[in-house]
Write a structure and sequence with these properties.
mainly alpha, 2 domains, rod-shaped, binds zinc ion, 3-stranded mixed sheet
Length: 236
């Protein structure tokens, strides 16, 4: 194999890894973002549930006080019934008793609804707490390994780029320009092996004469169809 072609194969291998590293530089931050969002979502639901629980408990306590007071008033009204003198007083007192009873009933119903809400919130908070503990641990571990990966990507990248520069300086300019043109236009590998007498990339059959030259490996040969540089299938 021609030395320049061997260098190009090494160079295209590096280009492949540079491409992979560039892709990971794009997807790693996205992955990190969604891992953080997952933690934030659980945390914000946990915070709002805890706030609501506190409010509901406060409302329940206030209602209990209110009902207690209303019951005391009711008792007083009922005591007053015993000492009533006129029909007018009687009617007024009956009205007050009725209103007090209605208020107590309404507040007790609200109180029950609140208690149900408190129970629901308490079990939801327990569930969220457990999930938060799990997700937080898992995602933080994942985040720190992704961060390590990102840091390593930068190092690997500059290492590869430096080595690529070295290789590139050894490849003759016309050969390098074939490489760059084909890589830009077609993507993927530029130096490909023959496969049963055809180009290993586009599968165009090559003439027997060309195959012979390729096998000898003394003159650079390209595929007429895709422009890639061809090397023998058994040539290392
Ligand atoms: Zn081809």
């Amino acid at each position: 194999m021609l030395e320049e072609v061997r260098l190009l194969m090494e160079l295209q291998d590096i280009d492949y890894w540079i491409g992979e590293l560039e892709r990971s530089k794009e997807y790693i931050p996205d992955m990190m973002k969604s891992l953080r969002e997952e933690i934030d979502t659980v945390e914000s639901e946990l915070t709002s549930s805890r706030q609501r629980l506190e409010e509901a408990q406060l409302e329940t306590n206030n209602l209990e006080l209110k009902v207690g007071e209303a019951k005391e008033h009711l008792e007083k009204y009922q005591e007053q019934m015993l000492t009533i003198k006129t029909n007018k007083e009687y009617d007024a007192l009956v009205g007050q008793i009725e209103t007090a009873k209605q208020e107590i009933a309404a507040d007790e119903e609200t109180s029950l609804t609140l208690l149900e809400e408190v129970e629901t919130l308490q079990s939801r908070i327990a569930e969220l707490d457990e999930r938060h503990g799990r997700i937080h641990q898992e995602n933080e571990d994942r985040l720190s390994s992704l961060q390590e990966e990102i840091d390593a990507v930068e190092d690997k990248m500059s290492e590869k780029v430096a080595y690529r520069q070295q290789l590139k300086s050894k490849v003759p300019r016309p050969t390098m320009s074939i490489y760059q043109r084909v890589r830009k236009g077609r993507g993927g590998d530029v130096v490909v092996r023959l496969k049963r007498g055809a180009c290993g990339a586009c599968y165009k059959a090559q003439t027997p004469k060309k195959i012979q030259i390729i096998k000898k490996g003394s003159i650079l040969q390209t595929c007429d169809s895709c422009g890639r540089i061809l090397v023998s299938d058994g040539d290392d």
